[in-house]
Write a structure and sequence with these properties.
Strand order of the largest sheet: 1-2-3-4-14-10-9-7
Largest sheet: 8 strands, antiparallel
Order of helices and strands: EEEEEEEEEEHEEEEH
Shape: globular
Number of helices: 2
Structural class: mainly beta
Strand content: 35-45%
Distance between the termini: 49 Å
Length: 191
């Protein structure tokens, strides 16, 4: 199923749109699941909340893909901050940074499931981030959350990262001797 008019899924899937105050919503419902998307403008960012609900008689698997498509080829695209990467499967840095001549765009996946199952790729003028292993038990819901950062032409990848750190209130110094290390050294022991 798709939110695009060009791509169709099951016959019952007919997206509807609307506005509530300053927020925009998109809703659609099929035989097995429903999608309720809320789009909120917040402090120069675009927050997206996609709530999937299993409405069939059993659990349902859903492949979630989001595409960012521009009229021109990207000048540069960084997946997880890596310039040479065209594919990323790292929930540790679930970001996309797209560079164009007059502006830049950043995207970050924020909820636990998106970060756990995060996959991203890009080519030419299209970046995609997806979750390919996602299932809901009968009657259950889950909300995927991601944020779009429109950035001006003078911004770079670290401008976006600084904004994310500010939003997450994680832009602080860790004092003293400290190491991000493996707490299970026995994994590397020779048997």
């Amino acid at each position: 199923n798709s939110l695009s008019e060009k791509l169709r899924g099951e016959p019952a899937w007919k997206p509807e749109t609307g506005k509530s105050g300053e927020d925009v919503w998109v809703k659609s419902k099929g035989k097995f699941y429903s999608l309720d998307r809320k789009v909120k403008l917040k402090g120069g960012r675009i927050k997206i909340y996609d709530t999937f609900t299993s409405i069939g008689d059993s659990s349902v698997g859903v492949i979630v893909q989001n595409h960012i498509i521009t009229p021109e080829t990207f000048r540069k695209c960084l997946l997880g901050g890596m310039p040479e990467s065209t594919i990323s499967e790292s929930g540790a840095n679930p970001t996309i940074f797209i560079s164009q001549d007059k502006s830049h765009l950043g995207v970050v996946a924020e909820d636990n499931m998106s970060r756990l199952r995060y996959e991203a790729s890009w080519a030419l003028n299209r970046a995609t981030f997806s979750i390919r292993h996602f299932a809901l038990a009968r009657g259950k819901s889950y909300t995927l959350e991601w944020t779009i950062y429109p950035l001006d032409k003078d911004a770079d990848y670290f401008t976006m990262i600084s904004q994310i750190r500010d939003d997450w209130k994680s832009n602080f110094t860790i004092e003293g001797p400290f190491e991000f290390g493996d707490i299970y050294p026995e994994r590397f022991a020779i048997p």
